[in-house]
From TrEMBL:
Domain Methyltransferase type: 98-199
InterPro entries, alphabetized: CFA/CMAS, Methyltransf_12, SAM-dependent_MTases_sf
Keyword Kinase: no
Keyword Membrane on entry: no
Highest taxon in the source lineage: Bacteria
UniProt keyword list: Lipid metabolism, Methyltransferase, S-adenosyl-L-methionine, Transferase
Lineage, top ranks: Bacteria, Bacillati, Actinomycetota, Actinomycetes, Kitasatosporales
Membership in a protein family: Belongs to the CFA/CMAS family.
GO MF entries: methyltransferase activity
Protein name (Swiss-Prot/TrEMBL): Methyltransferase type 12 domain-containing protein
Annotated Pfam families: Methyltransf_12 (PF08242)
GO biological process: lipid metabolic process; methylation
Amino acid sequence: MATRKLRVNRSAITHKVRYAVRNPERIVPYVKRTARDSWLRVKYPNHVDYYRAVMASDAARSPEAAVGSRSHERWLALGRMQFDYLREHGLAPHHRMLEIGCGNLRAGWRFIELLEPGHYYGMDISPDILIAAKKTVAERGLQDKLPYLTVTHDLTFDFLPDNHFDVVHAHSVFSHSPITVIDECLAHVGRVLAPGGFFDFTFDRTEGPEHHVLREDFYYRTETLVRLAARHGLEATFMADWEKRPHGQSKIRVTVPKS
Ligand SMILES: C[S@@+](CC[C@H](N)C(=O)[O-])C[C@H]1O[C@@H](n2cnc3c(N)ncnc32)[C@H](O)[C@@H]1O
């Protein structure tokens, strides 16, 4: 990613004005989104409740757009990118996988198709997007793979067994999460990882000040997330090979160090 982009503070008024001048057609949608989000933040002070309401509103219009894809082609391409990456990194049919923030299975349906029955576990805070996820399972004819799809309010994984998942995956989830949510996830994910397993997550990277836009998009410095993982006894590695893909976010891999 260009260094100039990595230093942009999207919450700064100067950035907003410059962006509006360059993209006048985006002003009205942005004002509408700001009004909706401001109202939802008053109604739901807790972040997860707020973001669930954002997803309900977005998914009612289009589940594919709600997970960030402007067209069906992009939805397919973004799912394929995640799938190909994990396949190149060794994902195999016998693995057990947990997808955090699985959305409407943009990548999930490909994982379900590959993995043995019952080996895919998807969780999301949004019941609306999980209804769309079940539709994706039906449309792809994946009923026999018996994927688990469950709604969650937190990332403690307290209902899941120890040492179970070879791969835990969260794509474009921490880019929508305050640090408290990421902290909770990192505090607990080590327990559910199988020996030798890993947890990959993407994040919106900044090399300038950390910031957020409408409490929908959060920008973090790599070292903040690496330090947070270390505080929970985890090793975090910046995945440089992911940077070669045409995707705006960066990726970190977390593992439990061998004792
Ligand atoms: C941009 S979408 C990406 C969905 C999917 N990972 C993909 O790549 O298609 C983000 C998803 O994460 C979910 N999400 C946001 N915060 C979450 C959290 N704290 N725990 C679980 N899911 C969350 C949202 O409801 C949404 O479905």
